[in-house]
Amino acid sequence: MKILISGAGTAGLTVAYWLKQYGFTPTIVESAPTLRTGGYKIDVRGEALQVLHRAGIYDAVVTASTDMQEALLVDKHGKVIHKMRGDAFGHRQGNDQEIMRGTLNQILLDQIPEIEIIFGDSIQSISQTNDAIEVEFQKNSPRTFDLLIGSDGLHSNVRRLVFGDEQKFSHELGIYLCVYSVPNYLNLDRTEINYTELGRTAGVWSSRSDKNAKAYFAFSSSTHIEPRDTVIQQQVVKNIFGTLGGEFPKLLNFMAETNDFYFDSASQIHMNSWSSNRVILLGDAAYCASPMSGQGTSLALVGAYILAGELALAKGNYQIAFNQFEKLMRPYITLNQELGMKAAKLFRSKEKSNPLSWLIEKLMNLLPGRLVEFFINRATKRINRAANSIVLKDYSLLLTHVCTKDPTKS
User: Fold this and answer.
1) What is the pLDDT of residues 311-361, one digit of tens each?
2) Rg (CA), the chain
3) What's the CA gap between 131 and 137, in Å, rounded?
4) 38, 316, 359 from 354: Cα distances, Å
5) Count of domains forming the chain
6) 255: which DSSP letter?
7) What does the pLDDT read at residue 370?
8) 100: domain CATH number?
9) What is the DSSP secondary-structure string of 220-253?
10) Which of 26, 46, 151, 218 has its CB 3.0 to 4.6 Å from that of 19, i.e. a possible disulfide?
11) Could you give the C-alpha distances from 243 to 200, 248, 251, 350, in angstroms and in order?
12) Residue 310, H or E segment
């Protein structure tokens, strides 16, 4: 059974690995010319750790983890007002791991050297019949597959082609995020510097073995910001954070020089169904919970593991597999998306005049470091609960036979 996967991110690489284990023939198409490296640091938590263990890459992830040791909370003048352990600041408990997104993807890619990956191309059109999917690429010749998995991110091309315009499914949370590389002129070593207030947070960090540092800024806004105009985006960030002192003016000045500036809205994807005949969406393309949840990578890993396992368990009967995939994943996704919405609501609480937001703002002025730690610890408990709210099947024990043909064909 030939399965095309759109997107060589965490979800796409993971589902390709498991599909190959079960005897399917996956092919990946990725619009970037090479594997996307760099990016932000991400966490793998709860049941998602089992996916790493069962793929045999948990030790590699631990070895390549960011190993963040400390977070220094500062006031708007850059003065240190509180310190936290790196794991506590990052909501990590137990064996939770933090790693660079690009590093995790490289580890996953190294597990599938025999799988065909078409870099530098993307899907132009999709035609479904009763027996197959006809795919036209922008550069390569048309090809036929049995199934198509769209794991191409928040702004999914497959979702647009099959299900319709992104606006039908995307729900912005009123928060914008940006991150970019800067010289590590502060000589940070596995340390993060962070400033937080209601509606605005900024910081810089450098992880293990990273010669550069990463600056980041996040803010709430009720005004829509053009997603493709970098000049406007950078000016907005400077306007909002220009009043901060300490190292922040210098970090803002690096924006114009960086070559990896990333800016986007914190959004969620809500869909009534993740599949349409022989096409199914996976990861952020189907159920993005937003960075506010702290669970995006874990949802991608878990979803990929379950989708491949259910296809194998159903012996390739994709209708049964897709239905079972949604049945297993929906409660898990709902809980994690609620997590993201709660975090966004707190972050934006200053926009509404009520006694609670007034009290929080007053406490932030009196005990900013302690209050930030309180909210971080409270969020950690919620994240941990959501991260462990699903129990994964061990498909290697359940399977007695794997069908690599499409059973719906005569």
Assistant:
1) 999 998 999 999 999 999 999 999 999 999 999 998 888 777 666 666 767
2) 22
3) 20
4) 41, 54, 9
5) 1
6) G
7) 83
8) 3.50.50.60
9) E-SS---TT-HHHHHHHHHHHHTT--TTHHHHHH
10) 26
11) 12, 9, 13, 18
12) helix 296-313
